[in-house]
Specification:
- The chain is of the alpha/beta class.
- The protein has helices at residues 60-67, 89-95, 111-116, 131-143, 159-172, 189-206, 217-223, 241-244, 247-254; strands at residues 22-31, 34-44, 49-53, 77-79, 82-83, 96-99, 177-181, 209-213, 226-231, 234-239, 258-263, 266-271.
- The protein has a domain at 22-104 and 175-271: 3-Layer(aba) Sandwich (Rossmann fold).
- It has a six-stranded mixed beta sheet, sandwiched between helices. A four-stranded antiparallel beta sheet has the order 2-1-4-5, covered by helices on one side.
- A hairpin with a 2-residue loop joins strand 9 (226-231) and strand 10 (234-239).
- Helix 4 packs antiparallel against helix 5.
- The longest helix is centred in the last third of the chain and has 18 residues, at 189-206.
- The structure holds adenosine-5'-diphosphate (ADP) and magnesium ion.
- Adenosine-5'-diphosphate binds at residues 31-32, 34, 36, 54, 56-62.
Protein backbone atom coordinates (compact mmCIF):
# COMPACT_ATOMS: atom_id res chain seq x y z
CA UNK A 1 0.00 0.00 0.00
CA UNK A 2 1.15 3.50 0.76
CA UNK A 3 4.67 2.71 1.70
CA UNK A 4 5.02 0.39 -1.28
CA UNK A 5 4.85 3.52 -3.42
CA UNK A 6 8.49 3.90 -2.54
CA UNK A 7 9.93 0.47 -3.07
CA UNK A 8 13.14 0.16 -1.16
CA UNK A 9 12.60 3.65 0.17
CA UNK A 10 15.89 3.54 1.97
CA UNK A 11 18.23 6.44 1.45
CA UNK A 12 21.26 6.32 -0.74
CA UNK A 13 23.89 5.30 1.80
CA UNK A 14 25.21 1.91 0.70
CA UNK A 15 26.11 0.80 4.22
CA UNK A 16 22.81 1.99 5.68
CA UNK A 17 21.51 -1.48 6.47
CA UNK A 18 22.77 -1.59 10.03
CA UNK A 19 22.63 2.15 10.63
CA UNK A 20 20.20 3.71 13.05
CA UNK A 21 17.05 5.09 11.46
CA UNK A 22 17.57 8.28 13.44
CA UNK A 23 20.72 9.37 15.20
CA UNK A 24 20.68 12.70 16.97
CA UNK A 25 23.90 13.87 18.57
CA UNK A 26 24.20 16.84 20.88
CA UNK A 27 21.32 18.69 19.25
CA UNK A 28 21.19 22.29 20.37
CA UNK A 29 18.53 24.64 19.12
CA UNK A 30 17.78 28.20 20.09
CA UNK A 31 14.74 30.04 18.78
CA UNK A 32 14.71 33.83 18.88
CA UNK A 33 17.79 33.70 21.10
CA UNK A 34 16.17 31.38 23.65
CA UNK A 35 17.78 27.97 24.11
CA UNK A 36 15.06 25.35 23.52
CA UNK A 37 17.09 22.14 23.18
CA UNK A 38 20.38 22.14 25.04
CA UNK A 39 22.10 18.92 24.01
CA UNK A 40 19.78 16.09 22.98
CA UNK A 41 21.07 12.64 22.04
CA UNK A 42 18.63 10.12 20.63
CA UNK A 43 18.82 6.94 18.61
CA UNK A 44 15.88 5.21 16.94
CA UNK A 45 16.50 1.82 15.42
CA UNK A 46 14.90 0.79 12.12
CA UNK A 47 11.40 -0.54 12.73
CA UNK A 48 11.24 0.86 16.22
CA UNK A 49 8.45 3.08 17.61
CA UNK A 50 9.80 5.75 19.94
CA UNK A 51 7.50 8.30 21.55
CA UNK A 52 8.71 11.57 23.01
CA UNK A 53 6.72 12.89 25.92
CA UNK A 54 7.17 15.95 28.09
CA UNK A 55 5.25 18.94 29.40
CA UNK A 56 3.97 21.71 27.15
CA UNK A 57 6.82 23.76 25.76
CA UNK A 58 9.47 21.12 26.53
CA UNK A 59 10.65 21.16 22.91
CA UNK A 60 9.02 18.01 21.53
CA UNK A 61 7.83 19.66 18.32
CA UNK A 62 11.18 21.41 17.96
CA UNK A 63 12.96 18.05 18.19
CA UNK A 64 10.73 16.49 15.55
CA UNK A 65 11.13 19.49 13.27
CA UNK A 66 14.91 19.19 13.50
CA UNK A 67 14.80 15.44 12.75
CA UNK A 68 12.52 16.07 9.78
CA UNK A 69 14.83 18.73 8.37
CA UNK A 70 12.33 21.54 8.94
CA UNK A 71 14.72 23.30 11.31
CA UNK A 72 18.41 23.55 10.54
CA UNK A 73 20.63 21.52 12.87
CA UNK A 74 23.90 21.11 10.98
CA UNK A 75 25.74 17.93 11.83
CA UNK A 76 23.37 16.84 14.57
CA UNK A 77 21.03 14.48 12.71
CA UNK A 78 21.73 11.37 10.63
CA UNK A 79 18.93 9.38 8.99
CA UNK A 80 19.78 5.78 8.08
CA UNK A 81 23.47 6.59 8.22
CA UNK A 82 23.30 9.68 6.02
CA UNK A 83 23.69 13.20 7.41
CA UNK A 84 20.35 14.94 7.04
CA UNK A 85 22.09 17.93 5.51
CA UNK A 86 23.45 15.71 2.70
CA UNK A 87 19.95 14.75 1.54
CA UNK A 88 18.38 16.91 -1.11
CA UNK A 89 14.78 17.93 -0.60
CA UNK A 90 13.24 15.24 -2.79
CA UNK A 91 15.54 12.55 -1.41
CA UNK A 92 14.69 13.61 2.11
CA UNK A 93 10.98 13.44 1.34
CA UNK A 94 11.33 9.80 0.31
CA UNK A 95 13.05 9.01 3.58
CA UNK A 96 11.08 10.98 6.15
CA UNK A 97 7.47 12.15 6.28
CA UNK A 98 6.19 14.47 8.97
CA UNK A 99 2.72 15.05 10.31
CA UNK A 100 3.11 18.42 11.98
CA UNK A 101 1.19 19.37 15.08
CA UNK A 102 -0.72 22.10 13.25
CA UNK A 103 -0.12 21.74 9.52
CA UNK A 104 -0.84 24.72 7.31
CA UNK A 105 -3.98 24.07 5.30
CA UNK A 106 -3.81 25.47 1.77
CA UNK A 107 -7.03 27.44 1.26
CA UNK A 108 -9.56 25.92 -1.12
CA UNK A 109 -7.70 22.63 -1.52
CA UNK A 110 -9.64 19.37 -1.84
CA UNK A 111 -8.73 16.28 0.17
CA UNK A 112 -7.63 14.29 -2.88
CA UNK A 113 -5.29 17.04 -4.08
CA UNK A 114 -3.85 17.49 -0.62
CA UNK A 115 -3.06 13.79 -0.20
CA UNK A 116 -1.62 13.78 -3.72
CA UNK A 117 0.93 16.36 -2.52
CA UNK A 118 2.49 13.43 -0.68
CA UNK A 119 3.48 12.01 -4.05
CA UNK A 120 5.43 15.13 -5.09
CA UNK A 121 8.84 13.51 -4.50
CA UNK A 122 7.97 10.85 -7.08
CA UNK A 123 6.60 13.14 -9.78
CA UNK A 124 9.21 14.48 -12.22
CA UNK A 125 9.64 18.25 -12.29
CA UNK A 126 7.00 19.68 -14.66
CA UNK A 127 5.51 16.17 -14.88
CA UNK A 128 2.16 14.82 -13.80
CA UNK A 129 1.20 12.15 -11.31
CA UNK A 130 1.12 8.61 -12.70
CA UNK A 131 -1.61 6.01 -12.37
CA UNK A 132 0.57 4.38 -9.71
CA UNK A 133 0.64 7.63 -7.72
CA UNK A 134 -3.16 7.84 -7.91
CA UNK A 135 -3.46 4.21 -6.86
CA UNK A 136 -1.36 4.88 -3.76
CA UNK A 137 -3.49 7.91 -2.91
CA UNK A 138 -6.76 6.00 -3.28
CA UNK A 139 -5.47 3.11 -1.24
CA UNK A 140 -4.42 5.40 1.59
CA UNK A 141 -7.73 7.27 1.50
CA UNK A 142 -9.55 3.95 1.77
CA UNK A 143 -7.41 2.75 4.63
CA UNK A 144 -8.04 5.91 6.61
CA UNK A 145 -11.77 5.84 6.05
CA UNK A 146 -11.57 8.92 3.86
CA UNK A 147 -12.78 7.67 0.49
CA UNK A 148 -16.03 9.57 0.85
CA UNK A 149 -14.19 12.83 1.58
CA UNK A 150 -11.92 13.05 -1.43
CA UNK A 151 -13.79 15.90 -3.12
CA UNK A 152 -14.31 17.92 0.06
CA UNK A 153 -12.39 21.08 0.81
CA UNK A 154 -10.09 20.58 3.78
CA UNK A 155 -11.48 23.62 5.52
CA UNK A 156 -14.93 22.01 5.71
CA UNK A 157 -13.73 18.91 7.58
CA UNK A 158 -13.94 18.39 11.31
CA UNK A 159 -10.68 18.50 13.27
CA UNK A 160 -10.53 14.72 13.45
CA UNK A 161 -11.27 14.21 9.77
CA UNK A 162 -8.61 16.74 8.87
CA UNK A 163 -6.09 15.02 11.14
CA UNK A 164 -6.69 11.78 9.25
CA UNK A 165 -6.09 13.63 5.97
CA UNK A 166 -2.76 14.94 7.29
CA UNK A 167 -1.74 11.40 8.15
CA UNK A 168 -2.93 10.21 4.72
CA UNK A 169 -0.64 12.68 3.02
CA UNK A 170 2.32 11.47 5.07
CA UNK A 171 1.55 7.82 4.33
CA UNK A 172 1.11 8.54 0.62
CA UNK A 173 4.65 9.91 0.70
CA UNK A 174 5.87 6.33 1.21
CA UNK A 175 8.73 7.36 3.47
CA UNK A 176 10.47 4.82 5.68
CA UNK A 177 10.47 7.10 8.72
CA UNK A 178 7.28 8.70 10.02
CA UNK A 179 7.44 11.65 12.38
CA UNK A 180 4.09 12.12 14.07
CA UNK A 181 3.63 15.21 16.23
CA UNK A 182 0.57 14.59 18.40
CA UNK A 183 -1.17 12.75 15.57
CA UNK A 184 -4.23 11.84 17.58
CA UNK A 185 -4.91 14.86 19.76
CA UNK A 186 -7.91 15.91 17.65
CA UNK A 187 -9.37 12.41 17.34
CA UNK A 188 -12.08 10.64 19.33
CA UNK A 189 -10.89 7.47 21.07
CA UNK A 190 -12.19 5.23 18.29
CA UNK A 191 -10.32 7.07 15.58
CA UNK A 192 -7.26 7.38 17.84
CA UNK A 193 -7.06 3.64 18.07
CA UNK A 194 -7.82 3.16 14.39
CA UNK A 195 -5.04 5.52 13.32
CA UNK A 196 -2.45 4.16 15.76
CA UNK A 197 -3.31 0.55 14.90
CA UNK A 198 -2.89 1.39 11.22
CA UNK A 199 0.49 2.99 11.83
CA UNK A 200 1.56 0.01 13.92
CA UNK A 201 0.40 -2.40 11.24
CA UNK A 202 2.38 -0.50 8.59
CA UNK A 203 5.35 -0.63 10.86
CA UNK A 204 5.11 -4.41 10.94
CA UNK A 205 4.26 -4.99 7.28
CA UNK A 206 6.39 -2.28 5.68
CA UNK A 207 9.14 -1.86 8.24
CA UNK A 208 8.26 1.75 9.00
CA UNK A 209 10.09 3.48 11.82
CA UNK A 210 7.99 5.80 13.98
CA UNK A 211 9.11 8.76 16.05
CA UNK A 212 6.08 10.37 17.66
CA UNK A 213 5.04 12.80 20.31
CA UNK A 214 1.84 12.12 22.18
CA UNK A 215 -0.17 13.79 24.83
CA UNK A 216 -2.15 10.90 26.21
CA UNK A 217 0.44 9.01 28.24
CA UNK A 218 -1.51 5.76 28.54
CA UNK A 219 -2.03 5.53 24.80
CA UNK A 220 1.56 6.63 24.21
CA UNK A 221 2.78 3.78 26.38
CA UNK A 222 0.61 1.21 24.65
CA UNK A 223 2.19 1.80 21.25
CA UNK A 224 5.79 2.74 21.97
CA UNK A 225 8.69 0.33 22.20
CA UNK A 226 10.59 3.05 23.98
CA UNK A 227 9.75 6.41 25.45
CA UNK A 228 11.82 9.50 25.93
CA UNK A 229 10.91 12.16 28.47
CA UNK A 230 11.99 15.64 27.42
CA UNK A 231 12.10 18.45 29.96
CA UNK A 232 14.09 21.63 30.33
CA UNK A 233 15.66 21.24 26.91
CA UNK A 234 17.09 17.78 27.44
CA UNK A 235 16.21 14.13 27.81
CA UNK A 236 15.65 13.37 31.48
CA UNK A 237 14.43 9.77 31.18
CA UNK A 238 14.51 7.09 28.54
CA UNK A 239 13.41 3.47 28.51
CA UNK A 240 10.41 1.20 28.18
CA UNK A 241 7.00 2.72 28.96
CA UNK A 242 7.09 0.98 32.33
CA UNK A 243 10.45 2.57 33.12
CA UNK A 244 9.45 6.08 32.07
CA UNK A 245 5.80 6.31 33.10
CA UNK A 246 6.23 6.33 36.84
CA UNK A 247 4.28 8.36 39.38
CA UNK A 248 7.52 9.91 40.56
CA UNK A 249 8.68 11.00 37.08
CA UNK A 250 5.30 12.46 36.17
CA UNK A 251 5.10 14.31 39.47
CA UNK A 252 8.57 15.72 39.03
CA UNK A 253 8.41 16.79 35.39
CA UNK A 254 4.70 17.45 34.80
CA UNK A 255 3.84 18.51 38.36
CA UNK A 256 0.98 16.06 37.98
CA UNK A 257 -0.73 13.85 40.53
CA UNK A 258 -1.26 10.54 38.83
CA UNK A 259 -1.81 6.92 39.70
CA UNK A 260 -0.06 4.45 37.44
CA UNK A 261 -1.57 0.97 37.17
CA UNK A 262 -0.44 -1.93 35.03
CA UNK A 263 -2.52 -2.45 31.87
CA UNK A 264 -2.52 -5.23 29.28
CA UNK A 265 -0.21 -3.35 26.90
CA UNK A 266 1.68 -1.05 29.23
CA UNK A 267 1.12 1.19 32.22
CA UNK A 268 -2.11 3.18 32.42
CA UNK A 269 -1.74 6.70 33.75
CA UNK A 270 -4.75 8.01 35.64
CA UNK A 271 -4.85 11.64 36.70
CA UNK A 272 -5.96 11.70 40.33
CA UNK A 273 -6.79 14.77 42.42
CA UNK A 274 -4.30 15.58 45.12
CA UNK A 275 -5.69 14.80 48.55
P1 LIG B 1 6.33 21.25 22.76
O1 LIG B 1 6.05 20.67 21.43
O2 LIG B 1 7.08 20.32 23.68
O3 LIG B 1 5.09 21.75 23.45
P2 LIG B 1 7.76 23.25 21.26
O4 LIG B 1 8.89 22.52 20.64
O5 LIG B 1 6.61 23.59 20.39
O6 LIG B 1 7.29 22.49 22.58
O7 LIG B 1 8.31 24.60 21.86
C1 LIG B 1 9.37 24.63 22.79
C2 LIG B 1 9.60 26.04 23.25
O8 LIG B 1 10.04 26.82 22.16
C3 LIG B 1 8.34 26.73 23.79
O9 LIG B 1 8.69 27.45 24.91
C4 LIG B 1 7.94 27.63 22.65
O10 LIG B 1 7.29 28.78 23.14
C5 LIG B 1 9.27 27.98 22.05
N1 LIG B 1 9.18 28.29 20.61
C6 LIG B 1 8.65 27.53 19.65
N2 LIG B 1 8.75 28.14 18.44
C7 LIG B 1 9.37 29.31 18.66
C8 LIG B 1 9.78 30.39 17.81
N3 LIG B 1 9.57 30.35 16.50
N4 LIG B 1 10.39 31.42 18.41
C9 LIG B 1 10.61 31.45 19.75
N5 LIG B 1 10.26 30.46 20.58
C10 LIG B 1 9.65 29.42 20.05
MG1 LIG C 1 4.37 20.36 20.35
Amino acid sequence: MAASGAPGAHPAAPDASDAAAVRVRDLRISLDGTPILTGVDLTVRPGEWVTVIGPNGAGKSTLLRAVGGLLAAPGAVDLFGTPLSALRRRERARVVATVAQSPVVPPGMAVLDYVLLGRTPYIPPLGRESAADMAVVHEVLGRLDLAGFQGRELATLSGGERQRVFLARALAQGATLLLLDEPTSALDIGHQQEVLELVDQLRRTHGLTVLATMHDLSIAGEYADRMVLLADGRIVAEGTPTEVLTEEMLARYYRAHVTVVPGPHGPLVLPTRPR
